[in-house]
Automatic annotation (TrEMBL):
Subcellular location: Cytoplasm
Binding residue positions for Mg(2+): 238, 259
Keywords associated with the record: Cytoplasm, GTP-binding, Hydrolase, Magnesium, Metal-binding, Nucleotide-binding, Potassium, tRNA processing
Primary localisation category: cytoplasm
Protein name as catalogued: tRNA modification GTPase MnmE
Superkingdom classification of source: Bacteria
EC number(s) per entry: 3.6.-.-
Organism the protein comes from: Kurthia zopfii
Self-association state and partner proteins as the record states: Homodimer. Heterotetramer of two MnmE and two MnmG subunits.
Family: Belongs to the TRAFAC class TrmE-Era-EngA-EngB-Septin-like GTPase superfamily. TrmE GTPase family.
Residues reported to bind K(+): 234, 253, 255, 258
Gene Ontology CC terms: cytosol
Length: 462
């Protein structure tokens, strides 16, 4: 186990809460707390059993001035999150009180934790592996229940276990290679070892491919489905956006709502996080194409995971509608035929024909009709009943995805080489590299600087 100084931070989210927690971790955690803590019976925290909670007051050491009434938990390592001694101080909420408590702790020997430092210690002390540490980060940022489940099962070590199995198989391949190198003169050794190597390598390859298949869903769960509302002016695009935002609890995000001319609203539709992409002014003025120019809007559309394509029930399809059908034809889209409270002028058969099997939903946003059906359609489209965050291993982390792609390339090279009768020591290089790359996912072959960069992305106090 590593030796570290004692760190402290407020570990509850910023803002006013009923309680807030100041967390300390490190060798001195308990003695620092003991210096400022006074219970009715003047308990000595250094002598209390581990994992116990104590009521009392925090006081200034010199003046004895009472700073705060607290409940204080003492947890001795290694059965703690960081594996170090941990003290958690529950105090009344409110920024002022909490920071007074933190200041008191810092004045008495603890150091302010860097962002992610608690999790980093958990990792360095072997409590969790890197993919689990990243899952903690995802958990903090999780935008919906489903995303939360993915993060939780990753933290559970599901991904780590699978990666471990893959690396074990690669070690077995390498063992076969060794046999081959050691007995090059025997032809039948090669005949026996190559098929075994191929079998195991192909298994590793197919497992990596399976993981990568989950990655688009994983990314969606984490970052929200990028959803563009498209349609010509006045069909009800802004009304649809507002209704989706109002009906569904908007998701709180740390991403600023407005970045120059793009507005993003996060909403949770039936467990699917949507990032509704709009352009500033789209509400007041015209459609997306006109507003941000053909090039930009093409780009926005191309990056969209889902298009909500709105047409008007009260008008026959126009040239522009037909052009938009052409624009979206390669994309994931749902046709929303809006304004069903007005007279029908549109030919719905024509709409269905143009939609070529894509879902068509009729709505009257004005009268709040059809929105539920639209939400069902959105959810169905991405979860078709086949995806259950509970029992699949998902990859949603961009770094993991990039590494899996690299690993896939390397193991494919190895397989091709083995099939082409390339000397085994060449195969050995590719297999070893695959093993290393997979190791980076769980943090086994990671350099320090990369580690620091990773952990600094965490929220303070975690
Ligand atoms: P956008 O230009 O596509 O964003 O359209 P808006 O959302 O600004 O809506 C244009 C007009 O249509 C507004 O006056 C809305 O109140 C109206 N509108 C939107 N949805 C409906 C609907 O379902 N029925 C009716 N009758 N009017 C609607
Ligand atoms: Zn509008």
């Amino acid at each position: 186990m590593f030796e570290f100084d004692t760190i402290a931070a407020i570990s509850t989210p910023p803002g006013e809460g009923a309680i807030a927690i100041v967390r300390l971790s490190g060798e001195e955690a308990i003695s620092i707390a003991n210096r400022v803590f006074h219970s009715p019976g003047e308990k000595n925290l250094l002598e209390v059993p581990s994992h116990t909670i104590h009521y009392g007051h925090l006081q200034e050491v010199e003046s004895g001035e009472v700073v705060e009434e607290v409940m204080l938990s003492v947890m001795k390592g290694p059965k703690t999150f960081t594996r170090e001694d941990v003290v958690e101080i529950n105090c009344h909420g409110g920024i002022v009180t909490v920071s007074r408590v933190l200041q008191l702790i810092l004045r008495n020997g603890a150091r302010m934790a860097e962002p992610g430092e608690f999790t980093k210690r958990a990792f360095l002390n072997g409590r969790i592996d890197l993919s689990q540490a990243e899952a903690v980060m995802d958990l903090i940022r999780a935008k919906t229940d489903r995303a939360m489940n993915v993060a939780l099962s990753q933290m559970d070590g599901k991904l780590s276990r699978l990666i471990g199995d893959l690396r074990q198989a690669l070690v077995e391949v390498l063992a076969q290679v060794e046999v081959n190198i050691d007995y090059p003169e025997y032809d039948d050794v090669e005949e026996m070892t190559i098929p075994l190597m191929l079998e195991k390598s192909n298994w590793v390859k197919s497992e990596i491919e399976k993981l990568l298949q989950t990655s688009s869903q994983g990314k969606i769960l984490r970052e929200g489905l990028s959803t563009v509302i498209l349609g010509r002016p006045n069909v009800g695009k802004s009304s649809l956006l507002n209704s989706l935002v109002q009906e569904n609890k908007a998701i709180v995000t740390d991403v600023a709502g407005t970045t120059r001319d793009i507005i993003e609203e996060y909403v949770n539709v039936r467990g699917v996080p949507l990032r509704l992409v709009d352009t500033a002014g789209i509400r007041e003025t015209e459609d997306i194409v006109e507003r941000i120019g053909v090039e930009r809007s093409r780009q926005v559309l191309k990056e969209a995971d889902l298009i909500l394509f709105v047409v008007n029930f009260n008008q026959a399809l126009t040239e522009e509608d037909l052009r938009l059908f052409e624009t979206v034809k390669e994309m994931n889209y749902i046709v929303v035929v809006n304004k069903t409270d007005l007279d029908q002028q549109i030919d719905l058969n024509e709409v269905h024909q143009l939609a070529k099997g894509h879902r068509v939903i009729t709505t009257s946003i004005l009268q709040e009709e059809g929105i539920d059906a639209l939400e069902d359609a959105i959810a169905a489209m991405f979860f078709e009943g086949t995806i259950d965050a509970g029992d699949a291993t998902y990859v949603s982390n961009t770094r993991h995805i990039a590494l899996l792609h690299q690993a896939l390339e390397r193991i494919s090279d190895a397989i091709n080489a083995a099939e082409a009768d390339v000397p085994v020591d060449m195969i050995q290089i590719d297999v070893t590299r695959t093993w290393e790359i997979l190791g980076e996912i769980v943090g086994d072959t990671m350099q320090d600087s990369l580690l620091n960069q990773l952990f600094s992305q965490f929220c303070l106090g975690k």
